[in-house]
Write a structure and sequence with these properties.
six-stranded mixed β-sheet, 54% helix, Immunoglobulin-like, 630 residues
C-alpha cells in the first residue's frame, strides 16, 4: 500500500513538474503550438487518451527516442483555451510528411468528441481544404478549454510541428503555396522534358544522368510535400527510393561533367564507393520500412544522414580543387552552386532534429535552391556541349587538313616524276647554250630562243607549285572564283597523281562565278573523283568521270558520275560515317566521304548525296553560289 502511494505521489509530482500550459486563443489568425505540446510514450498501439491518466508527460520526446522504443508510437498533447466569448473554428496544420501514421483526438470534458487519422498508410485523399497537408479541425465554444491528443507513429526522430490557424489564414496560405509549388514543379518538369529531348537528340550520356537526377529530385519533393501519398498512394516505394537514387544520379552527373575519371581518378573511384553505399542504404531502408521494422530503419536513416554531410564536403573539396588548381571553369561554377546547396541542405536535418529553430521556412528555401541548382546544371551542360562542339570542329578541321597532307604524301612521288622531265629539258637547253657559245654559234636570236624555252618550262613548274600551294594552304578564307578554274585545277591534280588512263570531263552551260572556299571545294571534288577512279579501275575498266554543273537560282548543283560498279545497297546508309570504308585491302582510312560531308554541309552550308546511277555511282553536291561573311 505504501509503495502504491509513493508511486502515485511521484507520478503526480512529475505531471505537475511537466504540466502543460494551455494555449490561449484570442483573435489571432495563427498560433505556434510547439512550446505548449507535451509528450509521452505509448504503451499500446490500440490505447486511447482516456487511458493516459498515469502517464508522465515531458516537454520533448528525446528521452524515449531510443533504439528499443523506435517501433513504438508516442503521444503529443496540447491544451487549447478559448479566451473570447465567441465560438472559434481553427485547424491544426502540419506540413511535415514523414509521418507513418497519426491519430487525432479532441477531448471535451474528458470525452472524445472528434477523431481522425492520417499519414502515409492512412492515405487520406479526403483531407480538409483538398490539400496534401495534414489538417485537423478544432471547434472551440466560448470560454472553453479542450484537449487535443496525437498518437504518432513515425520512423525517424523528426518532430511534427503543428500550427493552429483559421480558415481565412489557410485560404490565403494555399493561394501562395499553390503558386510557389506550381513554379517549382513546373520549372522542374520543363527542365526535365527539355533535357530529355536533348538527350534523345544528341545522345550525350551526361544528359541522361542530368535527366535522372531531375526526375528523382522531383519524386523526392513530390513525396516530401505530401503529394505522393495524396495523388500517388501506390507509389510510396518510389519516394522511399528517391533519396538514394538522386544522390547516385547526381554522382554520375558530377563524374561525367567534370571528367573526374581523367582529371581526378582517385576521386572518381571514391565516388563509386559512395554510390555503392547509397544504394545499399536505400535498398535496406526500403526493405525495413516495407517490413515495418522501424528500429532497423532508424539506424539506417541515421547512418544515411551521417553520410550526406561527408559526401557533400567531399564533393565541395574536389570541385574547389579542380577550380583552383586545374582552373576548370565548370568546376568553378559548380563549386559555388554546391556550396549554396550544401549550406541550406545541411540546415534541413538540423532543423528537423530540433537542433536549431529558424523563423523562416527552410524547406521552401531549399526547394528553390534545388531548382536554381538544376537550372544552373542546365546552363553548365549547354556550356559543356558548346566546348565539345568546339573541340569537334577543331578535330574535323584537323581531319580535313590531314586528308590534304595524306593526299600530298601520295602525290609527292608523282610530283618528283612530273618535275624530272622539265628539269631535264632545262638542263638540255643549258647544255645547248654552252655548246653554241663554245662554237661561236650563240647569236642573239638563238640565245633568245633558248631563254624563251627555259621560261616556258619554268612557267610550267611555277604553275604546278602554285596549284599545290593553293590546295595545301591551311588558311580558310572566302574568295571569288569561277567554277571552271576549280574543275581545271582539280583535273590537273588528279592527272598528276593517276598513272592509268583516265577520261575526266566537265561541262556546264555557262561559267559560274562563286564566292566561297575555293580550296575546300577542290578538296571535296578530289575526294569524289579519286573514289570514282578507284572504283572503275578495280573493275579493270578505263575510268570515266563526268562532271556537270547547273546554276539553280542562288545555288549550284554539281553532279559527278562514274562508270564503276556502283555502291552496295546495304552500304549506302553508312558511307558518310567516320572510319567506314569499302576498301577491304586496308588502303582506305574511311575518312574521305566523312570529310566530304563536313566540308559541304558545315563549311559551305550545302548538301551532299550518293546514289547509284545507270552505269555507276552518282554524287550530287548542292552549295550556295555565294557564302555570307560572318
Amino acid at each position: 500500500m505504501i509503495v502504491k502511494i509513493i508511486f502515485y505521489t511521484l507520478v503526480l509530482f512529475l505531471n505537475l513538474l511537466y504540466a502543460e500550459t494551455a494555449l490561449k486563443i484570442g483573435t489571432e489568425n495563427a498560433y505556434k503550438t510547439k512550446m505548449y505540446i507535451r509528450y509521452t510514450l505509448a504503451n499500446d498501439l490500440n490505447e486511447t487518451p482516456t487511458s493516459l491518466s498515469k502517464s508522465v508527460w515531458k516537454e520533448d520526446k528525446s528521452a524515449f527516442n531510443t533504439i528499443e522504443n523506435l517501433d513504438k508510437a508516442y503521444w503529443a498533447k496540447l491544451k487549447l483555451e478559448n479566451t473570447t466569448k465567441e465560438s472559434k473554428v481553427y485547424y491544426l496544420q502540419s506540413e511535415n510528411q514523414f509521418t507513418y501514421h497519426i491519430e487525432f483526438f479532441m477531448l471535451r470534458n474528458g470525452e472524445i468528441v472528434n477523431y481522425r487519422e492520417d499519414g502515409v498508410i492512412a492515405k487520406k485523399k479526403e483531407r480538409m481544404f483538398n490539400t496534401n497537408h495534414m489538417i485537423f479541425p478544432v471547434i472551440l465554444k466560448p470560454s472553453e478549454e479542450v484537449e487535443v491528443y496525437f498518437k504518432i507513429l513515425n520512423y525517424n526522430k523528426i518532430d511534427i510541428d503543428f500550427t493552429l490557424v483559421t480558415k481565412e489564414y489557410l485560404l490565403d496560405f494555399y493561394q501562395t503555396y499553390n503558386i510557389v509549388e506550381g513554379i517549382f514543379f513546373g520549372g522542374m518538369l520543363l527542365l526535365f522534358l527539355y533535357n530529355l529531348f536533348l538527350y534523345f537528340l544528341l545522345k550525350f550520356r551526361v544528359y541522361l544522368y542530368y535527366v535522372l537526377y531531375t526526375f528523382w529530385v522531383t519524386v523526392y519533393f513530390v513525396g516530401f510535400f505530401g503529394f505522393m501519398e495524396r495523388y500517388f498512394p501506390d507509389y510510396m516505394l518510389m519516394f522511399q527510393m528517391s533519396s538514394g537514387s538522386f544522390f547516385i544520379a547526381m554522382t554520375l552527373f558530377i563524374q561525367t561533367i567534370l571528367n573526374l575519371k581523367e582529371q581526378l581518378p582517385k576521386v572518381h573511384k571514391s565516388l563509386n564507393i559512395f554510390m555503392g553505399i547509397f544504394f545499399l542504404l536505400t535498398a535496406s531502408y526500403v526493405v525495413c520500412l516495407e517490413a515495418e521494422i522501424f528500429s532497423h530503419a532508424q539506424v539506417i536513416f541515421d547512418f544515411f544522414l551521417l553520410m550526406v554531410p561527408v559526401y557533400v564536403v567531399f564533393i565541395i573539396i574536389s570541385t574547389y580543387y579542380l577550380a583552383v588548381y586545374k582552373e576548370d571553369p565548370i568546376a568553378k561554377v559548380y563549386a559555388l552552386i554546391w556550396t549554396l546547396v550544401a549550406f541550406f541542405g545541411l540546415l534541413l536535418p538540423i532543423v528537423y532534429l530540433n537542433l536549431l529553430e529558424l523563423d523562416f521556412p527552410i524547406d521552401y528555401i531549399f526547394q528553390f535552391v534545388i531548382l536554381f541548382e538544376v537550372l544552373c546544371f542546365s546552363f553548365i551542360l549547354a556550356y559543356k556541349i558548346k566546348e565539345i562542339e568546339k573541340e569537334t570542329l577543331a578535330q574535323q578541321k584537323l581531319l580535313v587538313q590531314q586528308n590534304k597532307l595524306a593526299s600530298m604524301g601520295e602525290m609527292i612521288s608523282t610530283i618528283a616524276h612530273q618535275w624530272r622531265e622539265p628539269l631535264t629539258v632545262i638542263n638540255g637547253i643549258v647544255l645547248d647554250v654552252d655548246v653554241d657559245y663554245k662554237e661561236s654559234r650563240l647569236t642573239e636570236e638563238r640565245l633568245e630562243e633558248h631563254l624563251n624555252n627555259i621560261e616556258e618550262v619554268t612557267a610550267y613548274l611555277s604553275g604546278t607549285i602554285h596549284d599545290f600551294m593553293n590546295f595545301f594552304n591551311n588558311k580558310k578564307t572566302l574568295e571569288s572564283f569561277y567554277l571552271s578554274t576549280v574543275f581545271e585545277q582539280s583535273q590537273k591534280l588528279v592527272l598528276i597523281s593517276v598513272k592509268e588512263a583516265v577520261l575526266l570531263k566537265y561541262g556546264m552551260e555557262n561559267d559560274i562565278k562563286m564566292f566561297g572556299y575555293k580550296s575546300e571545294l577542290i578538296q571535296a571534288l578530289l575526294i569524289v573523283i579519286n573514289n570514282a577512279i578507284e572504283a572503275a579501275l578495280k573493275q579493270n575498266k578505263k575510268a570515266q568521270v563526268l562532271i556537270h554543273a547547273t546554276e539553280i537560282e542562288s545555288r549550284v548543283e554539281i553532279t559527278i558520275k562514274d562508270n564503276g560498279r556502283g555502291i552496295d545497297k546495304e552500304m549506302l546508309d553508312d558511307l558518310f560515317m567516320p572510319y567506314f570504308t569499302t576498301k577491304f585491302d586496308r588502303k582506305g582510312r574511311g575518312l574521305g566521304l566523312y570529310i566530304l560531308k563536313i566540308i559541304i554541309e558545315q563549311s559551305m552550308y550545302g548538301s551532299v548525296a550518293l546514289f547509284n546511277g545507270k552505269e555507276g555511282a552518282v554524287c550530287k553536291i548542292i552549295i550556295p553560289k555565294k557564302l555570307k561573311m560572318n
